[in-house]
Design brief:
Layout (H helix, E strand, L loop, with lengths): L5 H6 L1 E2 L29 E3 L19 H5 E8 L2 E9 L7 E4 L5 E2 L4 E2 L1 E7 L11 E8 L18 E5 L7 H5 L4 E3 L6 E6 L11 E6 L1 E2 L10 E2 L3
Parallel strand pairs: 1-4
Antiparallel strand pairs: 2-11, 3-4, 3-8, 4-5, 5-10, 6-7, 8-9, 9-10, 12-13, 14-15
Length: about 230
Protein backbone atom coordinates (compact mmCIF):
# COMPACT_ATOMS: atom_id res chain seq x y z
CA UNK A 1 0.00 0.00 0.00
CA UNK A 2 2.85 2.40 0.80
CA UNK A 3 3.98 2.19 -2.81
CA UNK A 4 0.88 4.02 -4.01
CA UNK A 5 1.42 7.50 -2.65
CA UNK A 6 -0.99 10.30 -3.64
CA UNK A 7 1.65 11.65 -6.02
CA UNK A 8 2.20 8.28 -7.70
CA UNK A 9 -1.54 7.75 -8.11
CA UNK A 10 -1.95 11.18 -9.69
CA UNK A 11 0.85 10.43 -12.16
CA UNK A 12 -0.59 7.07 -13.26
CA UNK A 13 -1.70 7.04 -16.89
CA UNK A 14 -4.67 5.31 -18.51
CA UNK A 15 -3.44 1.91 -19.65
CA UNK A 16 -4.34 2.78 -23.24
CA UNK A 17 -1.54 5.37 -23.19
CA UNK A 18 1.07 2.78 -22.28
CA UNK A 19 2.40 0.04 -24.50
CA UNK A 20 4.37 -2.47 -22.44
CA UNK A 21 3.23 -4.12 -19.23
CA UNK A 22 4.46 -6.66 -16.66
CA UNK A 23 3.14 -9.28 -14.26
CA UNK A 24 0.33 -9.44 -11.72
CA UNK A 25 -0.13 -12.52 -9.53
CA UNK A 26 -2.49 -14.99 -11.24
CA UNK A 27 -5.56 -16.25 -9.45
CA UNK A 28 -5.77 -19.42 -7.46
CA UNK A 29 -8.30 -21.82 -8.94
CA UNK A 30 -10.86 -21.41 -6.15
CA UNK A 31 -10.48 -17.67 -5.51
CA UNK A 32 -13.53 -16.51 -7.44
CA UNK A 33 -17.24 -16.88 -7.45
CA UNK A 34 -18.40 -18.23 -10.80
CA UNK A 35 -20.30 -15.18 -12.06
CA UNK A 36 -21.57 -16.35 -15.42
CA UNK A 37 -24.47 -15.58 -17.77
CA UNK A 38 -27.24 -18.07 -18.34
CA UNK A 39 -26.15 -20.70 -20.85
CA UNK A 40 -29.29 -20.21 -22.94
CA UNK A 41 -28.55 -16.53 -23.55
CA UNK A 42 -31.40 -15.26 -21.39
CA UNK A 43 -31.18 -12.30 -19.03
CA UNK A 44 -29.22 -13.04 -15.84
CA UNK A 45 -29.11 -10.56 -12.96
CA UNK A 46 -26.94 -10.36 -9.84
CA UNK A 47 -28.41 -7.77 -7.49
CA UNK A 48 -26.43 -4.91 -5.88
CA UNK A 49 -25.49 -5.05 -2.21
CA UNK A 50 -25.63 -2.41 0.52
CA UNK A 51 -22.75 -1.11 2.60
CA UNK A 52 -22.71 -1.51 6.38
CA UNK A 53 -23.84 1.84 7.81
CA UNK A 54 -21.33 3.97 5.91
CA UNK A 55 -22.42 7.61 5.93
CA UNK A 56 -19.67 9.11 3.76
CA UNK A 57 -21.02 10.87 0.65
CA UNK A 58 -19.25 11.39 -2.66
CA UNK A 59 -19.46 14.46 -4.85
CA UNK A 60 -21.60 12.57 -7.40
CA UNK A 61 -25.21 11.61 -6.81
CA UNK A 62 -26.75 8.32 -7.89
CA UNK A 63 -29.76 6.29 -6.73
CA UNK A 64 -29.16 5.90 -2.95
CA UNK A 65 -25.62 7.17 -3.64
CA UNK A 66 -24.66 3.50 -3.82
CA UNK A 67 -22.99 3.25 -7.19
CA UNK A 68 -20.51 6.04 -6.58
CA UNK A 69 -19.14 4.35 -3.45
CA UNK A 70 -18.56 1.08 -5.28
CA UNK A 71 -16.83 2.72 -8.27
CA UNK A 72 -13.17 3.67 -8.25
CA UNK A 73 -9.80 3.09 -9.86
CA UNK A 74 -7.43 0.16 -10.11
CA UNK A 75 -3.76 1.15 -10.15
CA UNK A 76 -0.97 -1.13 -11.33
CA UNK A 77 2.62 -1.11 -12.56
CA UNK A 78 3.79 -1.74 -16.10
CA UNK A 79 7.24 -1.70 -17.65
CA UNK A 80 6.31 1.63 -19.24
CA UNK A 81 5.16 3.26 -16.00
CA UNK A 82 2.27 3.35 -13.58
CA UNK A 83 -1.20 2.82 -15.03
CA UNK A 84 -4.83 3.02 -14.00
CA UNK A 85 -8.32 1.94 -15.08
CA UNK A 86 -11.86 2.42 -13.82
CA UNK A 87 -13.33 -0.45 -11.79
CA UNK A 88 -16.23 -1.31 -9.46
CA UNK A 89 -16.99 -3.53 -6.50
CA UNK A 90 -19.53 -6.18 -7.53
CA UNK A 91 -21.79 -8.48 -5.57
CA UNK A 92 -20.20 -11.79 -4.55
CA UNK A 93 -20.39 -14.05 -1.48
CA UNK A 94 -16.79 -13.12 -0.66
CA UNK A 95 -17.68 -9.39 -0.48
CA UNK A 96 -14.20 -8.86 -1.92
CA UNK A 97 -14.67 -8.83 -5.69
CA UNK A 98 -13.81 -5.97 -8.06
CA UNK A 99 -14.54 -5.96 -11.80
CA UNK A 100 -12.55 -4.11 -14.44
CA UNK A 101 -11.39 -4.72 -18.00
CA UNK A 102 -9.17 -7.68 -18.80
CA UNK A 103 -6.69 -5.36 -20.49
CA UNK A 104 -6.28 -3.64 -17.11
CA UNK A 105 -4.98 -6.86 -15.54
CA UNK A 106 -3.25 -8.80 -18.29
CA UNK A 107 -0.77 -7.93 -21.06
CA UNK A 108 -1.90 -10.04 -23.99
CA UNK A 109 1.21 -9.19 -26.03
CA UNK A 110 3.61 -10.73 -23.48
CA UNK A 111 1.13 -13.15 -21.84
CA UNK A 112 1.96 -11.71 -18.41
CA UNK A 113 0.09 -10.08 -15.52
CA UNK A 114 0.52 -6.62 -14.04
CA UNK A 115 2.08 -5.95 -10.63
CA UNK A 116 1.33 -3.73 -7.62
CA UNK A 117 -2.42 -3.84 -8.17
CA UNK A 118 -4.63 -1.90 -5.76
CA UNK A 119 -8.21 -0.67 -5.92
CA UNK A 120 -9.17 2.78 -4.62
CA UNK A 121 -12.94 3.30 -4.35
CA UNK A 122 -14.11 6.85 -5.05
CA UNK A 123 -10.56 7.98 -5.82
CA UNK A 124 -10.41 11.77 -5.93
CA UNK A 125 -7.32 13.71 -7.04
CA UNK A 126 -4.86 11.59 -5.08
CA UNK A 127 -7.19 11.03 -2.13
CA UNK A 128 -8.50 7.62 -1.05
CA UNK A 129 -11.46 8.47 1.24
CA UNK A 130 -12.53 4.83 1.60
CA UNK A 131 -9.06 3.32 1.70
CA UNK A 132 -6.65 1.50 -0.61
CA UNK A 133 -7.36 -2.20 -1.15
CA UNK A 134 -4.60 -4.56 -2.25
CA UNK A 135 -5.35 -6.99 -5.07
CA UNK A 136 -4.69 -10.60 -4.00
CA UNK A 137 -5.74 -12.51 -7.10
CA UNK A 138 -6.72 -11.63 -10.64
CA UNK A 139 -8.48 -13.53 -13.40
CA UNK A 140 -9.75 -12.89 -16.92
CA UNK A 141 -11.88 -14.80 -19.39
CA UNK A 142 -9.81 -17.20 -21.48
CA UNK A 143 -11.68 -16.09 -24.58
CA UNK A 144 -10.28 -12.55 -24.28
CA UNK A 145 -6.81 -13.53 -25.48
CA UNK A 146 -6.70 -17.30 -25.96
CA UNK A 147 -3.31 -17.49 -27.68
CA UNK A 148 -1.81 -14.15 -28.72
CA UNK A 149 -2.44 -10.43 -29.09
CA UNK A 150 -3.64 -11.01 -32.64
CA UNK A 151 -6.48 -13.19 -31.33
CA UNK A 152 -7.69 -10.65 -28.74
CA UNK A 153 -11.49 -10.48 -28.52
CA UNK A 154 -12.89 -7.36 -26.84
CA UNK A 155 -16.27 -9.02 -26.42
CA UNK A 156 -14.61 -10.84 -23.50
CA UNK A 157 -12.59 -7.91 -22.15
CA UNK A 158 -13.61 -8.52 -18.53
CA UNK A 159 -11.45 -9.21 -15.49
CA UNK A 160 -11.97 -9.71 -11.76
CA UNK A 161 -9.76 -8.97 -8.77
CA UNK A 162 -10.15 -10.27 -5.22
CA UNK A 163 -8.95 -7.60 -2.78
CA UNK A 164 -7.70 -8.12 0.77
CA UNK A 165 -9.65 -6.81 3.78
CA UNK A 166 -8.71 -3.51 5.41
CA UNK A 167 -8.95 -3.27 9.20
CA UNK A 168 -10.76 -6.63 9.25
CA UNK A 169 -13.51 -5.34 6.95
CA UNK A 170 -14.24 -6.58 3.45
CA UNK A 171 -14.59 -4.00 0.74
CA UNK A 172 -18.29 -4.55 -0.01
CA UNK A 173 -19.02 -3.90 3.66
CA UNK A 174 -17.52 -0.45 3.21
CA UNK A 175 -18.60 0.49 -0.32
CA UNK A 176 -21.60 -1.68 -1.07
CA UNK A 177 -21.54 -3.47 -4.42
CA UNK A 178 -22.79 -3.11 -7.95
CA UNK A 179 -25.04 -5.76 -9.43
CA UNK A 180 -24.32 -7.39 -12.79
CA UNK A 181 -26.58 -8.12 -15.75
CA UNK A 182 -25.78 -10.54 -18.55
CA UNK A 183 -27.54 -10.63 -21.92
CA UNK A 184 -29.52 -7.47 -21.15
CA UNK A 185 -31.41 -5.93 -24.08
CA UNK A 186 -30.48 -2.58 -25.63
CA UNK A 187 -32.18 0.70 -24.78
CA UNK A 188 -31.87 0.32 -21.00
CA UNK A 189 -31.32 3.46 -18.89
CA UNK A 190 -27.89 3.14 -17.30
CA UNK A 191 -25.90 5.10 -14.72
CA UNK A 192 -22.18 4.77 -15.48
CA UNK A 193 -19.37 6.03 -13.25
CA UNK A 194 -15.66 6.07 -14.00
CA UNK A 195 -12.50 8.04 -14.70
CA UNK A 196 -12.15 8.82 -18.41
CA UNK A 197 -8.69 10.17 -19.15
CA UNK A 198 -10.05 12.95 -21.34
CA UNK A 199 -11.90 14.60 -18.41
CA UNK A 200 -9.74 16.30 -15.75
CA UNK A 201 -6.95 13.85 -16.65
CA UNK A 202 -9.03 11.11 -15.04
CA UNK A 203 -8.49 12.61 -11.59
CA UNK A 204 -12.14 12.95 -10.61
CA UNK A 205 -15.06 10.60 -11.05
CA UNK A 206 -17.34 11.33 -13.98
CA UNK A 207 -20.90 10.18 -14.55
CA UNK A 208 -22.75 9.19 -17.70
CA UNK A 209 -26.52 8.69 -17.74
CA UNK A 210 -27.78 7.24 -21.00
CA UNK A 211 -29.64 4.37 -22.57
CA UNK A 212 -27.56 1.46 -23.79
CA UNK A 213 -27.07 1.05 -27.51
CA UNK A 214 -25.06 -0.84 -30.09
CA UNK A 215 -21.35 -0.08 -30.34
CA UNK A 216 -20.51 2.90 -32.55
CA UNK A 217 -16.72 2.81 -32.49
CA UNK A 218 -13.81 0.46 -31.94
CA UNK A 219 -13.54 -3.07 -33.29
CA UNK A 220 -16.32 -3.90 -35.79
CA UNK A 221 -16.65 -7.34 -34.21
CA UNK A 222 -17.52 -5.89 -30.79
CA UNK A 223 -21.18 -6.57 -29.99
CA UNK A 224 -21.33 -5.39 -26.38
CA UNK A 225 -23.30 -2.50 -24.93
CA UNK A 226 -22.36 1.14 -25.49
CA UNK A 227 -23.52 4.50 -24.12
CA UNK A 228 -24.06 7.78 -25.94
CA UNK A 229 -21.78 9.75 -23.62
Amino acid sequence: IKYWTPERMRKAKPIEELQKNVRFSPASENAFLQILPNSDGSLAIIEPGAADNITWQSRLISPNNQATKAAGKVFFSTSSGEAMCSASVVTAPSKSLVVTAAHCLFDDSTRTWYTNCIFVPVYDEGAAPLGRWVGRYGTILNAYAPSSASSKNYNYDVGFVVVSPVNARKIAQVTGSQGIKFNAPRNQMTFSFGYPGNIADGEIMSACISKTMANRCGAPSYVGQALRC
